[in-house]
Amino acid sequence: MRYEGPIYRPPSEADSLLIQATIGCPHNRCTFCMVYKNGPRYRARPVNHIKEDILEARRVYGPHVWTLFLPAGNTIAMKTEDLAEICRFARATFPTLERITVYGSSQFIHKKGPGQLEELARAGLGRIHVGLESGDDITLKRIRKGTNARQHIEAGGWLMAAGIELSLYAILGIGGQERTGEHAEETARVINQIGPDFVRLRTFVPKINTPLLEDIMAGRFQMLGPHGVLKETRTLLEHLTISTTLTSDHYTNYINLHGRLPQDKPKLLDQISRALKRDESEYRPFFIGTE
Ligand code: SF4
């Protein structure tokens, strides 16, 4: 198997076979993201090279592979017929395969439209991890996410209708002190309208070589402290009305929340209330991420 550039995968794909179908990110403008800022530039790999890697994985690991993740920032941006062919080939090569998963941003999902998403679902694409980050249009514009709340809602709705599992990521604190209320409420509103299978929380940590770190250093962006993040999480949770799995499976978070909504909401809110009683100095210190 051949890999190029930074290789990231969600924690939930820790046991998955990783086969690279695309390299880099076709957007590469988010102000908080350092992953591909130094390259490589986005491109899709030739389908025959991807198939060679799948066959090599079959030789190395045998036929019993259960989950496959196709890493890189926006593999959903690949041409639909090529991605569908890779999915069909992988399912034929590994008959026990239960899930094929990719990362994707709403603008690239939106470009495909409902018909192409259904085609991908039929080919065996089973789950997509989408960086919602926020449902607040002002925040989305400031972080240069390249999409907006309306597009998030339409793209998410089409994925759900196509039968592709949807895992949405929200970044706590990404609106800073100025937008924390709007960020929490609008993010909940957008999530409620989409109704994803999973909501995954991440806490904003500034990364080296990013425009947002420059804004922090120049005093243009005021970060939330631990209590601010916890209060924002409480507002978000209070406004979520859908049935979904909420989890914060990431090292950046101040507390680990995990449960089914709506039934676990009181328990999770109680966990946040207890966390707010702890002094801020008891939480992890500010740090600048390097990877
Ligand atoms: S779309 Fe994802 S990988 Fe690309 S720049 Fe934004 S956060 Fe980074």
Properties at a glance:
alpha/beta; TIM Barrel; two-stranded antiparallel ribbon; 10 strands; binds iron/sulfur cluster
What is the fold's blueprint, element by element?
Blueprint: E1 17-18, E2 22-23, E3 43-44, H1 47-61, E4 67-70, H2 80-93, E5 99-104, H3 106-123, E6 127-133, H4 137-142, H5 149-162, E7 165-172, H6 176-194, E8 198-203, H7 211-217, H8 226-239, E9 244-247, E10 258-261, H9 265-276
Helix pairs in contact: 1-2, 2-3, 3-5, 5-6, 6-8, 8-9
The structure holds iron/sulfur cluster.
Residues 25, 27-28, 30, 33, 35, 73-74, 105, 131 line the site of iron/sulfur cluster.
Describe this structure in words.
By secondary structure, the protein is α/β, with parallel strands linked by helices. It has one domain: TIM Barrel. It has nine helices and ten strands. Strands 1-4-5-6-7-8-9-10 form an eight-stranded mixed β-sheet. Strands 2-3 form a two-stranded antiparallel sheet. Helix 2 crosses helix 3. The longest helix has 19 residues. It is globular and about 55 Å long. The mean pLDDT is 97. Iron/sulfur cluster binds next to loops.
Look up the CATH topology: TIM Barrel
Main beta sheet: strand number and arrangement?
A: 8 strands, mixed
Radius of gyration: 19 Å
Number of separate strands: 10
How confident is the prediction overall: mean pLDDT?
A: 97
